[in-house]
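From the thread on structure requests for the teaching lab: each student submitted one protein with a one-line request. Submission from student K.M.:

"Model HTH luxR-type domain-containing protein from Streptomyces caatingaensis, tokens only."
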Amino acid sequence: MTGTGTLTQDLEAALKTIDEVLAHFQEVGDLAREARDRLSALQDLAAVPERPPAKDTTTPCVHLTQRQQEVLELLAQGSSNRRIGRTLNITEQTVKAHLHMIYRKLGAADRTEAVVIAMRRGVV
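Reply posted by the TA:
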């Protein structure tokens, strides 16, 4: 009987080790995806040609809420929606809602354009 108990304990320990390894790979995968998202955002930003601001963008005054400003600053750093949510302790859906309002207020079509406009206006 002692041999069976030891075998069971060894199998449980092996399963626990495998679970820990899988959790580690999940974390590495998350970090790799975040790095890819940041590089993609930087690539998109680099591809945006310099152009003079439109007449309605000459004023740097954009009325963003404090939370919208925080989201925009993290966006400008290349953070994914998931990372922004984790950093600000809000859901990804809430991040998307803030981004939607930021796009409207800046007159941007997407996250890259929002960052470019914000940088040109001195908002971030």
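TA comment: DSSP finds five helices and no strands in the chain. The radius of gyration is 22 Å.
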